[in-house]
Predict the 3D structure of the following.
Amino acid sequence: MAIVQQAARSRPMLYAIPALFAGLLLLVWGAERAVQGSTSLAARSGLPPMLTGLVVLGFGSAAPELAVALTAATQGHPALALGSAWGANIVAMSLVLGVVLWKVPLTVRSHGLRRELPLLLAATVLTAALVWDGVLSRVDAGLLLLGFVALLVWSWRLQQRSGDDALALETRAEMASQPGSVMAALLSVLAGTGSLVGGSMLLVWGAVETAVWLGVSDLILGLGVVALGTTLPELATCMVAARKGEHEIALGQILGAGLFNTLAVAGLAGLIEPMDLPVQVLWRDLLVMAVLALGLYRLARDAEGPARLGRRAGQALVGVYLLHTAALLITSGPG
């Protein structure tokens, strides 16, 4: 009888783990299609390149987390939504950026990006203040979304006042290289969106079943496995951009996605389904996000002229990722 019961409990895992990985693949493919189509449409719409670099590219990098967050929240798993968003920030700013810097040092000339770093730190501090009571309420989520709208308005006005900087120039060149017609771009966006929806449904189901089988919480699985899977493709795109000399785009993708995840993705998830949060979130996850944003901000602020981020910074960032992963393993558990 025990063997039969064990086999019954194991049967869902035969489908859950393949569904999780299939969902990740669909999310990666869909995000790539969606961002290509969106960038092509933006190039034809006359949007300022600076706004496109910080919003469209940031959205493209955060599209998998957004799809997972919306699906998870609507299905009653808000902790998985929040974990994937915050975990993606940690993976991108530590592991992804760290590996890129280890191989290709980045020189940052964009004043816009330097202004993004304290904004990302401020967004993290705001999030910590809102969830200090252990709850992400709809009011808290609404404030995060208002912060994201304010960021969009600020980016637009900044572009109008200051004109193009290094990020805008790199983005303009990248936008000009986008081939195809408007119809092709629309089809790419539609195909990417459909893949994101299907992939997120597969991933959320597989992740929830896997969490139950392993006896860990949705939050832990989102911060660890899901975040790593949705963010690792950024490593390839950032590495390609860095090797092409598009240093602002490489860093801009990470910072734009960080702001999008912290304000928009977490805000939408909380607006759909408010959630209680364990106290570990404050000292383990939000603290690490704040330390990463503060460290990058100090490096950029203290530099005279263009900020250069090199191998030592990359090694330190990878070390932060390993420490956070160890903390996840130590504090993992159900609930």
